[in-house]
């Protein structure tokens, strides 16, 4: 007989009420579960587990603009089946009905961004999964689809999924190992109660998160407007203005100059040293690529190269104080990463370094680009490129407003002070969002692993209404 153990202490579940009694689950990392619960392997909770079709049988050249939807991580990660525009024709769909999605199926991302889970909603557009997903068909006699989705989103399940995915360079879930996941299981009635409770609670939390994210967007817009105004209008609202002759600049102070960037700066590109020569990649010179452009100041990079690598490739050493921008990357669909390096760096071929002349401060030029990203993305876009790119000739011929150096200095100091205040506020709100997400995850995990008695929790809430 399984030994019944006392309930976990109140401190272990925070404000939530624990079940009256627990038993050993028999699984070390799962620990104790409520007395009435069982432990089952995932394969015994499903009628079928189907990995997506082989990539060679579903290539993008087969996609059409209408027909049957192709679902992938694009839908699963945000749990939104209304987005996406990949389709296949009917004749191809009829050969792949094994991979068709149905309401109640549980989809799991299995390559790259693995372990994300979404339950297919009732009114889903007909379609199939792509090679990056696994489709689980729940056995509704033992588990509700919504509850299975919650179980697989819990920390206990994710840690198991993460473990079975190890070994692949991208993180790939093996279907056989996935089927052996161990999960705790209450009765169907209790599953329904837990799922309903979590739907309500997570909806409330997600609404709070959405409000905070909207506030961050408004602050980011305020930040951009602040920068844009300062670098085109200056800090003195009483000075006479003149037409800059550039639509996206509008009026600027009458005493400012306007120069094409090629007459105000030098431009340098980058390159990639021979990858097979490992000695080239064992140096201490930061080799900056788009993935490093996440901050406004570049102190270092993920990759480093040697002087010999620079001497034997098309990259070159860029001295501190250059304005670095990304000129080829998907991120150029919505923003232009721009930063200033504070140490000598090399660049890859998707980057450009702009080295201003002595009458133009790098920090001011970076702010001009940063404050007018939307307009410059249109002005600089390279037509016909397979990847979003900036056209070099358009970049160097851009007209740039240039105040006297003393004003540039004042504008840079002003923006540094004012944007720091906004950034600090954005950081605090972001931390609040992360705490809400952590709470949401903890609540789900606690409920589906039996650490809190949802029936008791609902009863206590009702008493206080």
SSE layout and pairing:
Elements: E1 4-6, E2 21-24, E3 32-34, E4 38-41, E5 46-51, E6 68-71, H1 73-76, E7 87-88, H2 90-94, E8 106-109, E9 117-119, E10 127-129, E11 133-138, H3 145-153, H4 155-165, H5 175-178, E12 182-185, H6 188-233, E13 241-243, E14 251-253, E15 257-260, E16 265-268, E17 285-288, E18 297-298, E19 303-305, H7 307-311, E20 323-326, E21 338-341, E22 346-347, E23 351-356, H8 362-371, H9 373-380, H10 392-396, E24 399-402, H11 405-448, H12 454-463
Parallel strand pairs: 6-10, 17-22, 18-21
Antiparallel strand pairs: 1-2, 2-3, 4-12, 5-11, 6-7, 8-9, 8-11, 13-14, 15-24, 16-23, 17-19, 20-21, 20-23
Helix pairs in contact: 3-11, 6-8, 6-11
Number of helices: 12
Largest sheet: 5 strands, mixed
Helix percent reads 25-40%
Strand content: 15-25%
- Terminus-to-terminus distance: 42 Å
How are strands sequenced across the largest beta sheet?
16-23-20-21-18
If you average the pLDDT, what whole number results?
A: 90
Principal-axis shape: elongated
* Poorly predicted sequence stretches spanning 5 or more consecutive residues: 1-13, 167-171
Task: Determine the structural class based on helices, strands and strand pairing.
Answer: alpha+beta
Please tally the β strands and state the result: 24
Round the Cα radius of gyration to an integer and report it.
Answer: 28 Å
Give a structural overview.
- The protein is an alpha+beta fold and 465 residues long.
- The protein is 35% helix and 19% strand.
- The chain contains twelve helices and 24 strands.
- The chain has helices at 73-76, 90-94, 145-153, 155-165, 175-178, 188-233, 307-311, 362-371, 373-380, 392-396, 405-448, 454-463; strands at residues 4-6, 21-24, 32-34, 38-41, 46-51, 68-71, 87-88, 106-109, 117-119, 127-129, 133-138, 182-185, 241-243, 251-253, 257-260, 265-268, 285-288, 297-298, 303-305, 323-326, 338-341, 346-347, 351-356, 399-402.
- The strands form eight sheets. Strands 16-23-20-21-18 form a five-stranded mixed β-sheet, covered by helices on one side. Strands 5-11-8-9 form a four-stranded antiparallel β-sheet. The protein has a three-stranded antiparallel β-sheet with strand order 1-2-3, with no helix packed on it.
- Strand 2 (21-24) and strand 3 form a beta hairpin.
- The radius of gyration is 28 Å and the shape is elongated.
- The chain starts with a strand and ends with a helix.
- Residues 1-13 and 167-171 have low confidence and may be disordered.
């Amino acid at each position: 007989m399984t030994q019944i153990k006392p309930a976990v202490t109140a401190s272990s579940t925070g404000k939530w009420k624990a079940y009256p009694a627990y038993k050993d689950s028999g699984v070390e990392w799962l620990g104790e579960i409520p007395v009435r619960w069982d432990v089952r392997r995932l394969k015994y909770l499903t009628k079928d587990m189907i990995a997506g079709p082989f990539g060679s049988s579903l290539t993008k050249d087969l996609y059409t603009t209408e027909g049957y939807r192709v679902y992938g991580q694009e839908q699963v990660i945000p749990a939104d089946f209304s987005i996406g525009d990949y389709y296949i024709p009917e004749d191809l769909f009829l050969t792949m009905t094994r991979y068709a999605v149905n309401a109640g199926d549980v989809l799991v991302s299995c390559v790259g961004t693995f372990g994300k889970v979404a339950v297919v909603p009732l009114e889903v557009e007909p379609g199939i999964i792509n090679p990056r997903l696994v489709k689980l068909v729940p056995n509704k006699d033992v588990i509700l689809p919504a509850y299975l989705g919650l179980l697989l989103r819990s920390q206990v399940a994710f840690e198991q999924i993460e473990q079975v995915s190890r070994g692949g360079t991208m993180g790939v879930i093996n279907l056989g190992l996935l089927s052996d996941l161990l999960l705790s299981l209450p009765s169907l009635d209790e599953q329904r109660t837990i799922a309903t409770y979590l739907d309500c609670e997570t909806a409330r939390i997600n609404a709070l998160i959405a409000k905070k994210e909207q506030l961050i967007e408004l602050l980011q817009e305020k930040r951009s407007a602040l920068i844009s105004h300062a670098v085109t209008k200056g800090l003195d609202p009483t000075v006479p203005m003149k037409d800059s002759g550039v639509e996206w600049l509008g009026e600027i102070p009458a005493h400012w100059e306007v120069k094409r960037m090629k007459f105000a700066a030098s431009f340098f590109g980058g390159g990639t040293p021979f990858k097979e020569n490992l000695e080239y990649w064992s140096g201490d010179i930061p080799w900056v690529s788009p993935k490093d452009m996440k901050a406004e100041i570049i102190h270092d990079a993920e990759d480093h190269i040697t002087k010999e690598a620079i001497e034997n490739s098309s990259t070159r050493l860029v001295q501190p104080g250059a304005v670095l921008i990304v000129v080829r990357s998907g991120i150029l669909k919505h923003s232009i990463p721009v930063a200033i390096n504070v140490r000598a760096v090399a660049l890859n071929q998707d980057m450009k370094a702009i080295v201003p002349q002595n009458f133009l401060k790098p920090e001011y030029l970076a702010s001009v680009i940063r404050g007018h990203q939307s307009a410059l993305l249109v002005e600089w876009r390279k037509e016909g490129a397979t990847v979003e790119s900036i056209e070099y000739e358009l970049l160097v011929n851009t007209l740039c407003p240039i105040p006297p150096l003393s004003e540039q200095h004042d504008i840079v100091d002003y923006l540094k002070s004012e944007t720091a205040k906004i950034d600090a506020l954005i950081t605090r709100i972001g931390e609040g969002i992360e705490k809400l997400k952590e709470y949401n995850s903890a609540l789900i995990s606690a409920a589906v692993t039996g650490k809190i008695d949802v029936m008791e929790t609902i009863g206590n809430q009702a008493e206080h209404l």
